[in-house]
Amino acid sequence: MSKKIRWGVLSTAAIGVKKVLPAMQAGAYCTVVAIASRDRTKAQQAAAALGLATAYGSYEELLADPNVDAVYNPLPNNLHVPWTIKAAEAGKHVLCEKPIAMTAAEARTLLAVRERTGVKIGEAFMVRTHPQWLRARELITQGRIGELRSVLGFFSYFNNDSANIRNQVDAGGGALMDIGCYLVQASRFAFGALPERVVACVERDPQLSTDRLTSAILEFRTGHAVFTCSTQLAYYQRIHFFGTRGRIELEIPVNAPSDRPTRLFVDPGKDPFGTGSVTETFPVCNQYTIQGDAFSKAILEDTEVPVPLEDAIRNMAVIDALFLSSRSGRWETPERS
Q: Fewest Cβ atoms closer than 10 Å to its Cβ: which of 47, 89, 124, 133?
């Protein structure tokens, strides 16, 4: 295998064409060589815009290409598992967009696929390899804010376009699946555990049926996480980690800019004014480049990918429990695999 992993992409989804693929092209361990769409013209246009050598008019053609080592799967949520399976069976490693499946049970089917095919399969939570997130967890682990007791998150944007895939319930749309999954991930990442039980309050759009406003409490053995996510509120995102002796805040936790530094704030909690707060600034970087390189390096060195299937399944288990709680009106326990 070459020193760079050669990637193929399933679909011309905006997140891939506009964000992920240009970033991966700048990677030290990865390069994008092909893109596929069910519409050959769209694939050709995307390939031309990105400077890719090959465009395919079907996903099957791309999976049959011997020059493709790995596949990035940014298809709609309901197509994540079916096409991840097809890619793995074609001998391709797979980086699948979040959330990796529609349910934890569906995600678990990929374990047998990985075992049978021998390829690497991971979930594309790009935040997990961003320097600001790694530093936040390092500070928490070091006891910089004392004992972590609470995580508070908020993530929202406004989009009520019925044609948008994020607003189509059958395709796995809605706030919790699209952006709440990051807040679940953040809570688990900080506490280093699966919550003992969860409870959720969900408001669904009367026309779209997707959850447009979801709030949740996750009870961990050593603390709580509370978050709200929405697809029909003003754009905003922030995450706070509260400890017994201080607080850490990530200014732009998910959509970290690639054209300016990111910042993390450590507040010693002396007063409401943040007296004595310290700002840590992280140099300009592209989290999608980092993600692509980290996954590619794992292939080259035969090591674990940044967000393996086991972790993806645990995240889906929490999401399942939150949806169940919204229907039952009770605390629910995430399934443990």
A: 89
User: Phi and psi at residue 202, in whole multiples of 5°?
Assistant: -125, 135
Question: C-alpha distances in angstroms, 146 versus 23, 54, 77, 128, 223?
Answer: 37, 53, 38, 22, 13
Q: Is 254 found in the same domain as 155? A: yes
Q: What is the mean pLDDT of the chain?
A: 96
Q: How many domains does the chain divide into?
A: 2
Supply the DSSP symbol for 179.
I
> Which residues are CB-neighbours of 301 under 8 A, at least 6 positions away?
none
Mean pLDDT for 28-50 is 95
Residue 290 within any structural domain of the chain: no
155 within domain boundaries = yes
Cβ distance 142 to 118 under 8 Å? Answer: no
Please give the Cα distance from 201 to 213 (Å, whole number). Answer: 8
* Alpha-carbon span 164 to 145, nearest angstrom: 41
pLDDT digits (tens, 9 = 90+) for 62-82: 999 999 999 999 999 999 999
Span 4-31, average pLDDT: 92
Residues 136 and 261 occupy one common structural domain: yes
Residue 292 lies in a domain: no
Residue 243: which domain range? 131-284+317-328
**pTM of the shown model:** 0.96
Say which residues have a Cβ less than 8 Å from residue 104's Cβ, sequence separation at least 6.
Answer: 313, 314, 316, 317, 319, 320, 335, 337
Whole-number Å distance between alpha carbons of 118 and 78: 24
The letter for the amino acid at 226 is: V
Instruction: Examine the domain organization and report whether 91 and 138 are in the same domain.
Output: no
Same domain, 248 and 265: yes
